Description:
Elements: E1 6-11, H1 19-33, E2 38-43, H2 58-61, E3 68-72, E4 76-80, E5 87-91, E6 97-101, E7 108-112, E8 119-123, H3 129-136, E9 144-148, E10 155-160, E11 165-169, E12 176-181, E13 186-191, E14 195-198, E15 205-210, H4 217-228, E16 236-241, H5 251-254, E17 266-271, H6 279-289, E18 295-300, E19 303-308
Parallel strand pairs: 1-2, 2-3, 4-6, 5-7, 6-8, 8-9, 9-11, 10-12, 11-13, 12-14, 13-15, 15-16, 16-17, 17-18
Antiparallel strand pairs: 18-19
Amino acid sequence: MDNLIKFTLVVTFIYERPEMVSTMDRWIGYALKSNVKHLKIQVGPSNDDENYKYCVPQTVLNAISIQIFDLVNLIQFRATDIVHFERLKMETPNLHSFTLQGPTWPSILKVASLKNLKSLHIFSAPITDKWLYEQLNKFPHLECLSLADCPMLESIKISSSSLHKLRIDSCGNMAKLHIDIRNLYVFSYYGDIISFSSNNLTLPKVNLYIKSNNMDNSWYTRLIKLLDEFNQCFKMVTLESDTGENYIIPCEVRKLTPPPLHNVKELKLSMTTNRHRPIAELVDAMLWISPHLESLDIINFNVQSSFKV
């Protein structure tokens, strides 16, 4: 058969039958070889148990022939480099996790009826400030949001009453970030200095990896201003770095500005290389940034130095 108009695969019960997975893969492979235009896959019942789950092959998302793709009882959706889809519409009320990765996206992407979505992860994608703002308003139960390497994000505002974890990584053109998330537990930011603001945010845990190719005195002054925004985080602040140099505030800058994290009691410096600055210099830098520390951890690979202040 050269062309198949529609292929529907319904498997209502696959518990403790792993051989069904390979059989389903073969059936779907047959449909793809037959240039199927409308593919529908239904696996049930909807359940969080791993034994009830089926992972759709990536070849389905890359298929040239598919025009309509229906997934029923979908709980987790992850797609990398969706090349051939012109239109993708998501109406999956049971979806818990949604991940999109890659610079190639459908020209029309609509997500609706995702009322139970808990995790949203977007990597290397051409999303805009407007698109992100509009989509986040549709997810009342979202708990985890990750945005990485999204070059079109410039100035974003995130408001949520349910979000617990927020991670922003290497969004190179982002200049402003405002968050109004009263139940946020962990905030992670990786990139250059941005304008950050929040509505009376109190965070139990903050992870920051602030880096730049031009670390002059004006950069360090702006770094202190950014760190000051997290002074209300009383439990734990983690500063990440390659060598620790980006957190060693020059003496001339220290004379002009007060320490930014004077309310923080626990501070951790985590480094990714063994070419770090001398420990004594790093300890001095951390004690200036947080002069009222009770504990300080300096981690380099698997070596950890702990200090009680």
